[in-house]
Write a structure and sequence with these properties.
six-stranded mixed sheet; YhcG_N; tRNA_endonuc-like_dom_sf; single chain; PD-DEXK-like_domain; globular; alpha/beta; 13% strand; Trna Endonuclease, Chain: A, domain 1; DUF1016 family protein
Length: 342
């Protein structure tokens, strides 16, 4: 019997069958969990609708309104157990108010995602994170991190009113090199306290040691190619700090790290790297490479002059090792929107 089992398990046809059954079972579990999640969200939305319609119908005196959720929490918990705490009922009520049409929500979002979205007061900001979390399939933890790093405010800072509204409605759609950029890039996940004393090599090392959150900060589509990537020109060796390939834009993305201000020769060197990759590394189907110099500080005028009539795929962006001042970024956004109305 054991010999028969050994022969059977070694059979190629049996291995195919085993993979088919395993794949079907795994897909079935995923679909079942998705169906449960969809039904839970739909149920909470309906509960929220009942509460709001009851309140709007004036079926209770206004001075009893604050007691409604407490009373419902008590009675529903006795009937159904967990899931009907007062705090959860507050979120369920808020859910219906924020999303009167639940069909617009991505099926990639769980109730835990929605709870995090409901903590955002600004509809524009909430809309962006809703779209982005669904499109990039962020975990709840990733969603929280992107909220804390003020991703929406950082991306919106460089856009006009139309761009801001599009960002809120659709999320960040990557169609060209400039769509990859964030100002500033935030590396708070490295947990390096201020003031810090890091060399460029050390910064590169710790970023590679934290590759998963680094890729999350860079955005969707980045795949890591290598660090200290050798470029040889006329028997002289140069090294690009970090090289990625972007699956959506179908191009190499070269990143150089600077702990001091960017100098004009840093920009010239990156332009040389771009020329090398375009001619020596690109294969059929690849688009021109993109170069990003990440610096602690940036002299805007120097960058403007140093990049005059240079490769439009070359960018100088700032980074920081701590979370940005959200309120300062929000004030900038509000100012941009007000100026657009004038």
């Amino acid at each position: 019997m054991s010999n028969d089992l050994h022969i059977l398990s070694a059979s190629p046809d049996y291995r195919v069958l085993l993979e088919q059954i395993s794949g079907t079972y795994t897909q079935g579990r995923v679909r079942a969990m998705q169906a449960v999640n969809d039904q839970l969200i739909e149920t909470y939305w309906q509960v929220g609708r009942h509460i709001v319609e009851f309140e709007q119908g004036g079926k209770i005196r206004a001075d009893y309104g604050t007691a409604l959720l407490a009373s419902l929490a008590k009675d529903l918990s006795l009937r159904h157990g967990k899931g009907f705490s007062r705090s959860n009922l507050i979120r369920i009520r808020q859910f219906y108010q924020a999303y009167p049409n639940s069909a617009t929500l991505s099926h990639q979002l769980s109730w835990s995602h929605i709870v995090e979205l409901l903590k955002i007061d600004d509809p524009l900001e909430r809309g962006f994170y809703e779209q982005q979390a669904g499109r990039e399939r962020w975990s709840v933890r990733e969603l929280i991190r992107q909220k804390e790093s003020a991703l929406f405010l950082r991306l919106a800072a460089s856009k006009d009113k139309a761009g801001i509204l599009q960002l809120a409605a659709q999320g960040q759609i990557v169609e060209q090199a400039a769509d990859l950029l964030r100002e500033p890039y935030v590396f708070e996940f490295l947990k390096i306290p201020e003031p810090y004393q890091l060399s460029e090599a050390q910064l590169e090392t710790v970023l590679c040691d934290h590759l998963q959150p680094f890729l999350l900060e860079l955005g969707k589509g980045f795949t890591f190619v290598g660090r200290q990537y050798r470029v040889t020109i006329n028997n002289t060796h140069y090294k690009v700090d970090l090289v990625f390939y972007h699956r959506i834009l179908r191009c190499f993305v070269l990143i150089d790290l600077k702990i001091n201000d960017v100098q004009h020769h840093d920009i010239g060197q990156m332009n040389m790297y771009l020329g090398y990759f375009a001619n020596e590394e690109n294969v059929e189907g690849d688009n021109p490479p993109i170069g990003i110099i990440l610096s602690r500080n940036k002299d805007e005028l120097l960058v403007e002059y140093a990049t005059y009539q240079m490769n439009s795929q070359l960018f100088v962006q700032k980074y920081q090792l701590y979370l940005p001042d959200r309120e300062a970024l929000r004030r900038e956004l509000e100012l941009s929107l007000r100026e657009a109305e004038q």
